[in-house]
Amino acid sequence: MESPSPFYAYKETRLDLEPATQGSTVAIRLPPHGASTILSRTAQKRSQVTEIPIAEDEVAFRRSHLATAASIYHRSHYKSPRSFLWRVLEDGKVLSVRAVDVSRPSNSADANLTLRLNFPSPITPGCIALSDSKDHDILSIFVITESKHLYTLTLRPDFFRKPSSTEDNVDDWCKSWVSHASFKLPHRLATLGADDLLISAHDGSLLKLDRNSGGDGSVWRESHHSAGSWTQNLRSMIVRGSNTVLYGKHSLELSSATSIATPAAIIDGVSYVFMVSLDHRLRIWNLAAGRMAYNGDMLNQETELHEEAKKVIDPSQSQLVKVFGDNDESALCVTFSPLGTGQFKFWNATPNEAGNLEVVDLFPDNTLIPQTPTSEIWTLADFSVVLDRSNANNFTLWALWKNNVTYRLHKLNFQSGSTSRLRDAWEGSWEAMATETLRETPLPAAFPGDSADMTDKWLDFILFPGRFTGATIETGLAIYARGLGSAKEAARRSGSLPERMCAIIASTVSLQHISGDNMNYEEFRTATDTQWRRFYRLLLELDKQRGEAMSLVIDPQGEMPWVILADGITAIRDCSGLEKIWHNNGMVPAGTQHIARPLFAAASFRDSLSDHFIHGCKAMLLEEIFQEPSLTDPARMRAFYDKCDFSNQIGDDEYSQLVSGLGGDFKGVTQHVYQAMLELMNTAEDFDKRPQVLPLAEFGNKLVLKGVQETTELHRNVCLDQLIFLVLLEVEVNHGEEGIQFETAAVFGQLMPMFARLELVNWLASTQISLPLKKVERSNSISEKATSPTRKPPPRLETLTVLEGVLRHLFGLDLRRDETLSSVVTEVIIQICALDSEYEAPPAVIQCFLLKHDRADLAIEFSRFAGRDAFSTYIQGRACLAANEPLTASMLFKKAAFGMAYPNPKKRTDHRSAGYLDETERNLLNAGVPEYYAHIVALFDREKMYSFVIDFARLSLQFMKVGNQEPQAILLRTEMHSRLFNAAIQTARFELAYSILALFTDNALQHSSVRTLVTKMCESSYASQLTELPFIGLQDAVDSILAQKCQSIVDVTVGVPYHKILYAWRIKRSDFRGAATISLERLQRLQQSGDGDKIIGEDGLETPVTKQYIALINALSCVEPKQAWILSEEPPRKGATGKNSQQKRKVVTLDDLRRAYQEELDRIAAIQNNQFAFAGGDEMDVL
């Protein structure tokens, strides 16, 4: 008779080992044994922060990323870091060690560094052991290499926090030693205590090593022991066949211990070590006496000598015995015999008078055969037992099954009692772990009319956080590109990972013509999708290898099981109430059958419908939840029914299947059923928020995140199933002959907010962001020393999801009394996903978080979740402004004006912004309309969007009270005038800028602004408009400014013609003599320059000088004849010194100018006729 299927009570939560922080891997090359200190320090390569190179093929990927052995060690004496993951990589040459704590002390930094220790020779399989010291906060790692050297690594907590802590001191914490019995081959290494080791040799002997307390491992005392007496050795020698078994390149005696329980068990003050040898025997060694205390068959089945040859254990088996002892009187020993179908034995070991141990089978009348997951061939790779501290008769057994790269985890709770009761428990009380459903997510598909591009869909799918590691994608891309040719492979090496993926996939598909200018887009889309699917299958094959189980460890704090994989770890948490129903179709928990029937019926109903119809329903629901409803719930359901075309998309077969799944009618669909279903997706009403004493470490955040992703996906699917079912029920059933008295609209109204919440959490858990890592050590770290001393190193970044970035400071997994970590993790996950979550962060706060970290693109994408209150609208405006959408931002700022401007100091303090708003900005909110608009002015001014500065500055001034002379009001008014004036200047709205001048009450500010306006108008070729402005009360200031500009000009023929502008300014204001004065000054400068004689007219007599004469004569001609004169300062002649160099002032009349003008014309005419003056003559002597 087949065993019943186990009940799925636990959930797999697989976590990858990809570091969240850049530069978190430290590579250290360990020195060879025997190297002198000086030579080792000079030859030793410096430890360095490094990134693991991209594996170019599957072999390199397996060598670099897939462990051949791995486990987690939990320290018992010190708490931070407490849990360490060790892995053997690179064909045994590299030992990777990192902390995998779930929580950490609030006053210590996260230990997120990974040490990659490169040994001189490969590590011997099964010869790695770890221990911690009660007296020192260190982790000791003991490793035996194939060169038979014992390495002792003494690692301090700082090694996993600060890269600089491992620099230049490898010899201080890495010691090597070689045994005198170097002719023996070690098979297993185990720690008996902090300073005691036990080595099982190939010949069946044992080598016990001990050192002084706190020793560094450079000196060990060794004692050799034989595996048994001469009679036992004789038994092994005379058995039929060989007494050795081949393992790798070496032969092992059958008396060799292949599994050793650690640490040593102390019974009646004596230390004993329990082990299982290859000849299927349980051996217990008395360490104090140095002899065997017990030697018996693992199944208590003593056989004849000739039959023992049949009982040989595979030497690769290393997890066959576990020992537990909470008292000093006895010890519980649990063994597993891997022979045949496999069988457990529970032994009670007690001391006797002869110094031996009496080992008694606790269940002699029962055959304890564990239940295999399926009828296929499975191997029990590891097991663990958890004892009930309150009841010694209660046992919990965890069994890890393995089939190639697939694994399953089973659990059995049983009590010692009658034979039949125990037999029933072992046959039908097993519980199992449900595998991740995230890996069963439907692949992206193309639908008619879908606006989303297939490439974008595939990128989002493949790069979904936690689905594939970066190393897996890189290797898959390398293999895929190499299959396409060398040119494609070269293109793979430039650009970001998403860009390279798109480039390689796109290079395999070309857009073809159908006819004429028409392109075959449909074929192009289909071909692109095909290539993405090929690439995905390649990634899937690589990823499967990462899931091979290595070992099983139960965390003593919280009793959570951890399965260590080839490239990852799996936390085993409790299934939620809904998951227990979902994963146990056919054997749901008692009392939930009324929920299970509509749950599974709706799920099967959705599976029977077309993908195109489901896609349309999803799109319609997303549109519904992000809009303010304008219809009643029944009307919304009817509109949803019509828009999605339920009547044509759902056939009679699908409808019949639905009715059949419900039991033949709809009577089981009640308000009570849905109330219970919604309670399963929400937290209990009496939920007490868990106090956060210890913040989560990196793997704690990963654990919560992965659980949230898994739970969100399940809850979203359930909501979608039930919403489609309810719409059909409302429209086609409730109003038909089979109508039931059930208010579907009420449940619809409850499910829609739940669905919206799940969409928000899904977005947070699937969107990644890079944040700068807080600096926790001095600038002498390795990574910083490698950079130029004159250039600051780039900030270290950590990549995490928005959910972690926003909420991780609120998460806590602190245990209360009698709680297990497995149940607490599930409780926190459900609380995060719940509609009334205690871990709620308003959408506006999330947008502020994104804006604070310069991710305006994500803030805009998140806007669909934004609330409709004034603060949310204001933050959306900030997002649009940061995304360079000023027009939309302006509209949103105006929309939020009333709520954000109404004076309310209390409300101002309620605005949570994740540190995005500074104190100045916060003080301007809810402080009045002028203050609010002044704040908006400052935002646009900072972005140099001056047209919007003008709009909002006017609004701010418009709402200011007239006559308000309070200092704050005066300062605000002055600031708005200044910003408005500056914006008008920047946008060339000079008339507006001029109108602001009269409003300045500060004379210094006013005159400064006049200078700015005049200068800007002149430089912008607005001089004619400048002369038209009246400048009432400021004309003298403008004249003075222009005069100063004229004085500063070196060459009047280039640049802004300030002389001409001042001439026009004075002419406009009838200051003809002033205009003549500045014109004369320009004339003199032209005469001194070499460009004044250039011919510019057609008659050959017009030059810049003659034109200036005409302007000058015209200005003086407008003055009465008696006043037609000006004072002129003659510029000094070139080369003049002493008294001759002093400038002379003289009166210049209109007649003088006319005469000089005529002389200039004569001079030009003479030059035109090739008549030149002799040098040295005062007058023009003509040749």
TrEMBL record:
Give the main location.
nucleus
- All copies of the Nucleoporin Nup120/160 beta-propeller domain together span 82-579
Q: Does the keyword Transport apply?
A: yes
A GO CC term?
nuclear pore
User: Mind telling me which InterPro entries this protein's record contains?
Assistant: Beta-prop_Nup120_160, HEAT_Nup120, Nucleoporin_Nup160, Nup120_helical
Q: Which residues form a coiled coil?
A: none
Where can this protein be found?
Answer: Nucleus
Give the Gene Ontology MF terms in alphabetical order: structural constituent of nuclear pore
Q: Where is the Nucleoporin Nup120 helical domain?
A: 621-751
Task: Kindly provide the name given to this protein in its UniProt entry.
Answer: Nucleoporin Nup120/160
Mind giving the lineage of the organism this protein is from?
A: Eukaryota, Fungi, Dikarya, Ascomycota, Pezizomycotina
